[in-house]
Amino acid sequence: MIVVEDNPFYNKMLYRQLHYLADKIAVYKKLHFKIESYAHYDDFLRNFSPNTQIVFLDFYLGNSTTALDIIDEIKQKNDSCKIVIISKANHFLASEKTICCGADAFIPKDKEALKKVGHFVEEYVSVNFS
Known about the structure:
It is a single chain. Strands 2-1-3-4-5 form a 5-stranded parallel β-sheet, sandwiched between helices. The protein is an alpha/beta fold and 130 residues long. The protein has a single domain (2-128), classed as 3-Layer(aba) Sandwich (Rossmann fold), CATH 3.40.50.2300. It has 5 helices and 5 strands, in the order βαβαβαβαβα. The chain is globular and about 40 Å long.
């Protein structure tokens, strides 16, 4: 799993939530998770592994770059990678556009975001590692 989030606070919060969840799932399902985080999309793209299963991607990535600009690049390197967009742009058009461009889910950055991230990971593990 990879977190790509330019806000240092939210990056660390999401990274910690994923570690907490992964530790719980790892014990129960006897799985190992590698979790990485990047504050800049260039670093992420340079280090992206074709074995990555899930990317949690902020919509606005700085320098006028959005998730829409790099979804294709992710899919070209690994078309089975799940892409979850996380954004403050909490409106229908943003979520619809990201899904149409290849994202697998859209999670608004609100008080329920970390819980929804957890649900996405639990569902992914349930479907792929049962």
